[in-house]
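Anyone opening a protein record will find just a pair of labelled lines. With that in mind, the following record should read easily:
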Amino acid sequence: MAEDYDAIFYIEIESGEYLTFSKSQKYKTLNTTTDGKDFFGETLKSLERCVYPDDLEYAKSFYEKETMLKNLEGKRSFSFKYRLVISGEPRYFLFTAMLEKNKQYLIFYEKDIQDELKAEIEQKENQKKTITFGQIAESLASNYDVIYYVDIVNSSYASYVANNIYGELEISRSGEDFFKESYENIPLVVCRQDCEQVRDFIDKDNMISALEIHKDYRLDYRVMRGNRPKYTRMIARKTSDNRHFIIGVEDIDDEVKREKQQLKELKTERELARRDELTGVKNKTAYRELEQSAQGNIENGMDYLNFALVVCDTNNLKLINDTQGHAAGDEYIKASARLLCDIFVHSPVFRVGGDEFVVFLQGSDYSSRHELMDKLRSQVLDNKKMGAGVILASGMSEYKPESDSFVSDIFERADKEMYENKQSLKS
């Protein structure tokens, strides 16, 4: 048994006399005796010398004879652990007390478990990382058909094929130069009209520059499947340590078909009921429906659907109505709508009040939201300086998954920023 334990004590309970058995070199550095007359008293004295100070009071609580026997009542053994100082370093030991069958002797074991505890902690950490990686992989697999993990420095990569049904990733292939191989494959798989923009997107320097500014970098393009083009989206991001690109490719052909179908439905009576008669943009009813849809996405945990709201209000409308007439005011409102549609080309514009507009930023407009807002405000300042064109106060706010529970919270932030901009324009 001495092979498995650092020390074994054989103690006569009545007298306290004891013998010690040990082959451990670590235990011998504690300079304890191999036999003695009073195990409990001598042990309490030696604790001051051997036990790590933070554990001393805890260790002392076990070595009164009555306490140890009480802990053994109804049990064959009991264990506890604390740290001993070995060669100047604290190490955890497990201590086990056990009665022999006639209950005249007590057998007491000491075992160094520091390495076991360390290995157990490392195993739990590795399990946690594995679980976390699995969750991330499952999340990615539900969104993408292929994922590339690309070393930014040397361009080597591994690619993973996503099984969207089961939420799993399976490694497909790896290579030495993602960008070189992609350039070679672009003419073979990408629709001819889209090859140039895909080449620009895949350019390593362009990707690095874009991701210095934006959280993600994306492109919608067409690949040839058989004899017909199929819409695809590529999204690039950087890992938190800035050492790798994660590039996801997803099939969005059904999504594009749905969008095209929605455009056709603009001509239906139902869609016309959601159009503002004066400006031709969407009306307040359409905005409320979109707001409800976005709210549903938030409540269902679809926090990967990024969007932002731009709230705008026309300046000087009352003055124009009073001095030039309502026909001129209507033209002013229509010009305001045209300006917003010209700038936010890929996002729906809503007229939600007499002189108030909301833009729902999504897709590429969301990715370029700051540049587009700068463009809008720059145009407004030019109009003000020249004394011609519309003056629109504007404010923007993004959806923040970590804190936003309601679309109305996002609207209120944008509205507050718009009001501040309005005051600035008036001054």
Remarks:
- Residues 164-170 have pLDDT under 50 and may be disordered.
- The two ends are 89 Å apart (CA to CA).
- The chain is about 45% helix and 25% strand.
